[in-house]
Amino acid sequence: EGSVDAARADALVERLTGIAAGQPVPVQVIITPTGPDLPGYGPLSPAHADQLCATSTPIRLSRPAPALGYPPGVQLKRYVNARDRHCRFPGCRRPALHCDLDHLIPCPTARTTEHNLYCLCRYHPRLKTHTNWKVQNGPGRTLRWTSPRGHHYTTGPDDP
């Protein structure tokens, strides 16, 4: 029902996403020690999280094995996306689902493990690689960024 333009818009969305009009949109709800969280948007009420999770099959994330080569496997990607939730560059909050995984220590010097991978949006790996920005692992899954002017910024996966 509706106009031809609405039908065309629905067809375009279905071709791009594979989700037809009227189908539920998949979401990721992460249950943290501080409560449920919708990546890219923030905390949810427990009642809303229960409603979103009622018709889904939960995925239990466990620490994945290191990848054998450069590209991380599906489990490792899923684990790092759930852990980081957003781009780990200071001030960037692009959801992890729209980010790439970047190696802290470049391959083949270091292995592809959860400790050497973190989420960065498409812009920030180039900034890190082609400018004087530096990054190091910190305590508690934090990253310590050093700007070209020597300023230090610490980011964590739980940053708002």
Main β-sheet description: 3 strands, antiparallel
What's the number of helices? 4
Order of SSEs:
HEEEHHEEHEEE
- Helix content, binned percent: 25-40%
Map the helices and strands.
Elements: H1 4-17, E1 30-32, E2 35-38, E3 42-43, H2 46-53, H3 74-84, E4 100-103, E5 117-120, H4 123-130, E6 134-137, E7 143-146, E8 152-155
Antiparallel strand pairs: 1-2, 2-3, 4-5, 6-7, 7-8
Name its key features.
160 residues, 4 helices, alpha+beta, three-stranded antiparallel beta sheet
Structure description:
- The chain has helices at residues 4-17, 46-53, 74-84, 123-130, and strands at residues 30-32, 35-38, 42-43, 100-103, 117-120, 134-137, 143-146, 152-155.
- Helices cover 26% and strands 18% of the residues.
- It has four helices and eight strands, in the order H-E-E-E-H-H-E-E-H-E-E-E.
- It starts with a helix and ends in a 5-residue tail after the last strand.
- It has 160 residues and is α+β, with helices and mostly antiparallel strands.
- The strands form three sheets. It has a three-stranded antiparallel sheet, with no helix packed on it. A three-stranded antiparallel sheet has the order 6-7-8, with no helix packed on it. Strands 4-5 form a two-stranded antiparallel sheet.
